[in-house]
Amino acid sequence: MVRSGGRNRHLSFDVLGTPIFEENDTNSSINRSKSDPPALETDVASDPEKRNRRKRRNKSSEKKAAADSLDKTNGDKFDSEIYNSSVSKTVVYEEMSVPEEKSVVSIEFRNLHGGELRQRSLISLREENEDENENENENENENFNGGSKEVQGVIDGMRSSKLEREESLDWRRLMAQKDPNFLLYVEKSPLKYYIEEMNCGNSLRTTSTLANEEDRERVYDTIFRLPWRCELLISVGYFVCFDSFLSIVTVMPIRLVMVAWRSLNARHFKRPSAAELSDFGCFVALACGVFLLQQTDISLIYHIIRGQGTIKLYVLYNVLEIFDKMCQSFGGDVLHTLFNSAEGLANCEQETGYWLGRFLSDEVLAVAASIVHSFVLLAESITLSTCVVAHNNALLALLVSNNFAEIKSSVFKRFSRDNVQVMVYSDSVERFHISAFILFVFAQYTVEAEYPWFEKFLVNASMVYICEIMIDVIKHSFIAKFNDIKPIVFSEFLEDLCRQRLKLEAENGKKKLTFVPLAPACVIIRVLCPVYAAYLPQGPFLWRLVCIFLLSAITFMMLTTLKMMVGMGLQKHAIWYLERCQKRKLHCD
Questions:
Q1: d(CA 113, CA 91)
Q2: Where are its TM segments located (predicted)?
């Protein structure tokens, strides 16, 4: 925006009235300014009247020049102040009215093409304009003084805000206001800083906090209380699985023989009960699994696993362990379905054909699941045996990779209470499977080893068991720590397991230990048969049959005795623990 500075603009045409140049007229002339050629000035000087008019015009132009110089001085002063204010990043514009200059020009044209041009200026009007300009200059000076004060106030405000902003951006001053010792920290020497660090006390004060009683209890729970209760729960679960396995190989055959004897002596057909149908289904699945495993060449599988170089032994063992857990879970569901169909077939009065077909279909599915699971366990047993026999520390590599992979996959995850209970039960089942694998290795050493092997077998078996116990304890201790699970929770899990062992009704939502002993029983029977065959005496066929019968009877009696000891021990422990829990609850109430 261009500013006029309060000056009036005077439009002046100083055109001298002279005759217009006409064609073929050499005497015609025109009055011109000083910038005109000298030849024309001689014509102006020749006329006295025009000379006087010239003088009056010069006087008025001098007055105008004086007024213009004054306005220019005021305008330059105002422009300089505005420029100085623009340096402080503040420009204030004020709208001022610029009055139009009043000039009256009467122009008459004669002889449009070359006539005389005349200008008649009214001097009186010009003098009035000069008076008005003086008044306007005074008013503008007053307005300018007032506006300059306002501009100065705005400039001072902006300068103060700028200073405040600069002070707020001063990091040292800001930190000094919040922490009076900040400048001391910054300005101190390295030696003083190191001396203060030595004398300030605990060097971990910035990265650790003081523990309370709850934190202390958590530490001792992780180290002492929880490992003991966890190992007690897994051990009881292991013996529950062992008792179920002994029931399959000792109680179930006796019950089937009794049912068959009663059916032969009965004159009328009697529908079997649900328990008898369930025993029959389990026996069929066990017999099919043992028969198919007897047709399997273990030596061939052993050399295939040992000779291959594509997959490492510990990788193969981890893969088979995953399939083992999957088959265990699926086999439990199939077995529950079979028991349900057996109960429906035993209690149905109508639609017997429907329930019979359902029971047979579930039986086929149970046999297939048992066979698949048996082959998986057999392959896993052969892989572990290969690692034990190998001389390149393959067993150590297998234990390290398997156990630490288990810790990595479970410790740093979130688990609920029910998930932890299922995991503990799964570890109990896994420990029983490891016992079956160790028994398989023992049988292989007994049959095929030709050098002193018992000491090496004990070392390897102890290494496997110790690693398994340590990994289970560490895993569950840190899972309980990270998920804020108290040791008393594992005592509650043990209480539920004792109720399950005594066949008491569990509360709704309580998890149960699920274990299907069919596949481990198939593998153990398949492994022990070559051992008995190796120690049978040579002689006639009848003598060999007698020896087989005697060995079988002795083995059965030993297993039955073991079953009674384990079963009665579990029963007494369950009763004692439930009574103890009941007394503790009464004491707490």
A1: 53
A2: 232-254, 274-293, 513-535, 541-562
